[in-house]
Design goal:
single chain; alpha/beta; 6-stranded mixed β-sheet; globular; binds iron/sulfur cluster
Amino acid sequence: MSLSRTIDKAAAGDRLSVDEAIELYAQAPTHTLARLADAVRQRNHPERIVTYIIDRNVNYTNVCVARCNFCAFYRPVGSPEGYVLGFDELFRKIDETVAVGGVQLLLQGGHNPDLPLTWYEDLFRAIKERYPAFKLHALSPPEVIHLSRLSQQPVPVIIQRLIAAGLDSIPGGGAEILVDRVRRQLHCDGKATADEWLDVMRHAHRAGLRTTATMMYGTVETDEERLEHLLRLRALQDETGGFTAFITWSYQPEHTELAGREATGLDYLRTLAIARIVLDNFDNLQASWVTQGGKVGQLSLAYGANDMGSVMIEENVVRAAGASYCMDEAEIVRNIEDAGFIAKRRNMHYEILGDPVFRERDVPRMLELATAREDGDAHVPDELVNYPARSRSGKQLRVVPSPSRQH
Ligand code: SF4
């Protein structure tokens, strides 16, 4: 098919085959991709509302046995820089989030062999007891698989137990590129193959949870593999309808074993636009301003995005790899309105919660990103003694008397 016929087909809103999508992605001028993607956004969101959520991105531990070569965040078991957040620290973070109008924790972390399933269940229950209306958007598919292996229980059982403890939805992290050739090169096929990642989402959707889907591009994949990733997500969405949104971001190479160069802003905008065109069964696409910066984030709204993602209160993962953009609610709203859209707060289900909080009441400005822990804070949470450790270093920490327990 000629490029112009493929463009016409996309403009008519017809579903693209893999070959057509590849042709469009590789050959269409950027302004054409933008026009096509913006037309899809307008069809799906004619009211010109751009949403965002006030939540907090918290990484409960950086200790991880997966050791993906693109990750600058993790620390190996026994590292003096490894941490696990205590329940009290997490409560404090929730208090700060609620103070700025936040409604949810996005809770993800490393695959720590010294945190059994009961630690997660107790944490979720404790949070729900103190903050009954607060939502837990927690544990990406590889973390669910890690818990399944650690506790030797099937994935559906893990999901049911987490739901019973208070899990509300699952974030789409850990997808990287859903092609096993790529995953092998990134050393992340061990944590989850493409099929395993999709299968966790299938089980989650069947259990009634909504989830997001992501794509991290710009490592070792080809353009065709990016498209294969999108088509696999589209197929699962056809099957379950459980994804609320899609988010794509570029690989951040600094301080990683894989190293390399970061994809350009133009690559980001073209990738976002083709995702909007191909993912015809996804309602919402988020702008990834955390990796691209506020200005490209704002431009995303002309390339298919209808959501600015989360007000960033805390960030640890992307920052470890060199990116640290910060926008509080006032700044996000300014970017949305200056682009000609109406800014509204939402929850994870994309239900509108209202106008910007800072226009309704005084909220503290957050002009700097918080971190999981202050530098040099190496304390070990007291409650960890209640949970059996698997690693030798974890076991040692559990037996040392409380006052001297230090990482
Ligand atoms: S990306 Fe996640 S699973 Fe991979 S090493 Fe980093 S923390 Fe571990």
